[in-house]
Write a sequence for this structure.
C-alpha cells in the first residue's frame, strides 16, 4: 500500500494501541439456494477470498496509510498454529509492533467459516473458544509502558471479538494516559455497554445501522435510517454528552456526529466484490485522518474513499489500497474533497 505523504510534525497522534480479535476465515459457496438441512451433505467450493478479524483490518490500514512515522501496536492472542503464525507474519510485514500478541499453544486462532448460497445470502460459523476469547485484562496491562511512552499523543482502539472486560481496561487505561479513545461494539454488545459507564471512556464510537438501531431500540429493518441515527445519537449522548460518532449504513452512506453537527456522505458507486470489512476500513480511515490532525468531517471523507475502495476487493483487506488509488477513485467518482484531504492524497 502506498503511504500518505506528510511530515512528522503533521501528526497529532503518534501511535495506536488496540485490542480486539485477530484471526482469519474462509468462504464456501454451496450448490443450490435451498436452505442447508440439519443432517444434509452439500457440495460446493471455496472462494479465493482472504478474511481477517476486526482489529487486524483496522490496524492494517492505519499502519500502512501512516507508515513508519506512526507506531501501531495490536494487543491480543493467537494460537500456536499455522493461521496464528500467518497472522503474526502479515501484521509484522506492514510494520506493526506485535510484542503484545501472545501465542497460545493448544488453542486455535480465531477462525470463521462463511457459507454462501448462490443468491448471495448466507451465514457465518465462528469459533467461540479461540485464542481471542482468552484475552485478559493482564494482556492490556503489558502495554502500560507504551501508554506512558505516548502519553497524550496516542489513540486507543477497542474492537470486538475479545471479552468486554479486556476492552474496558484498555479504554480506562487510555483515559488515565490522555489517549484519544475509539471503540466499536457488536449489536450483541450494545445492551451490555449502555448504562454501565463504559461510554464515558469513549471519544469516538463507530457503529453500523444495526448497532445504532439496537441502541435506539428500533428495528433495523423497516425503520427510517435517519430516525435510527437521530434516536441513537440522543441515547449515546445520555451516556456521554461529548461523544462523537461515525455511523455507516451500507448503500445509504455514512454519517459523522462531531457533537454539534451531523454530516452525511453518500456511498460511492464502485464495482463491488465484497462488502465484508468495509465498516472496519471506514473506521481505519477516520483514525488515520484524526492522527493526521484532520477534523472529523475531513477524516470522514478519507474514510469514505477507503471503505469504497475496500469493497472492490474480494478480500477483507484490500492489498492495493493507497494514496494513488484513493486519489483516482475520488477523480473517477467526482467525489468532492476538502483542500486538506486533497493535499494528503496528492502530496
Amino acid at each position: 500500500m502506498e503511504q500518505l505523504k506528510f511530515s512528522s510534525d503533521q501528526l497529532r497522534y503518534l501511535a495506536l494501541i488496540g485490542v480486539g480479535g485477530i484471526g482469519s476465515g474462509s468462504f464456501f459457496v454451496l450448490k443450490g439456494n435451498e436452505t442447508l438441512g440439519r443432517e444434509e451433505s452439500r457440495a460446493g467450493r471455496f472462494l479465493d477470498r482472504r478474511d481477517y478479524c476486526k482489529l487486524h483490518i483496522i490496524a492494517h490500514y492505519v499502519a500502512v496509510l501512516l507508515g513508519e512515522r506512526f507506531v501501531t501496536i495490536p494487543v491480543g492472542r493467537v494460537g500456536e498454529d499455522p493461521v496464528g503464525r500467518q497472522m503474526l507474519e502479515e501484521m509484522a510485514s506492514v510494520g506493526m509492533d506485535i510484542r503484545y500478541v501472545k501465542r497460545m499453544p493448544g488453542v486455535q486462532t480465531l477462525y470463521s467459516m462463511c457459507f454462501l448460497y448462490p443468491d448471495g445470502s448466507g451465514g457465518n460459523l465462528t469459533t467461540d473458544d479461540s485464542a481471542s476469547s482468552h484475552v485478559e485484562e493482564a494482556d492490556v496491562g503489558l502495554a502500560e509502558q507504551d501508554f506512558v511512552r505516548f502519553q497524550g499523543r496516542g489513540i486507543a482502539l477497542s474492537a470486538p471479538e475479545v471479552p468486554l472486560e479486556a476492552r474496558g481496561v484498555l479504554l480506562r487505561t487510555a483515559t488515565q494516559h490522555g489517549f484519544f479513545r475509539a471503540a466499536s461494539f457488536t449489536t450483541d454488545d450494545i445492551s451490555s455497554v449502555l448504562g454501565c459507564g463504559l461510554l464515558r471512556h469513549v471519544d469516538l464510537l463507530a457503529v453500523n445501522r444495526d448497532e445504532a438501531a439496537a441502541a435506539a431500540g428500533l428495528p433495523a429493518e423497516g425503520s427510517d435510517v435517519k430516525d435510527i441515527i437521530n434516536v441513537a445519537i440522543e441515547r449515546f449522548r445520555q451516556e456521554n454528552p461529548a461523544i462523537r460518532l461515525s455511523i455507516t449504513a451500507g448503500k445509504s452512506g455514512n454519517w459523522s456526529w462531531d457533537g454539534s453537527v451531523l454530516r452525511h456522505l453518500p456511498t460511492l458507486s464502485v464495482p463491488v466484490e465484497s462488502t465484508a470489512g468495509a465498516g472496519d476500513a471506514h473506521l481505519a480511515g477516520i483514525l488515520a485522518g484524526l492522527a493526521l490532525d484532520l477534523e472529523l468531517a475531513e477524516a470522514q471523507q478519507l474514510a469514505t474513499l477507503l471503505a469504497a475502495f475496500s469493497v472492490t476487493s474480494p478480500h477483507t483487506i484490500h492489498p492495493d489500497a493507497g494514496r494513488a488509488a484513493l486519489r483516482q477513485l475520488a477523480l473517477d467518482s467526482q467525489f468532492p474533497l476538502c483542500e486538506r484531504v486533497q493535499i494528503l492524497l496528492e502530496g
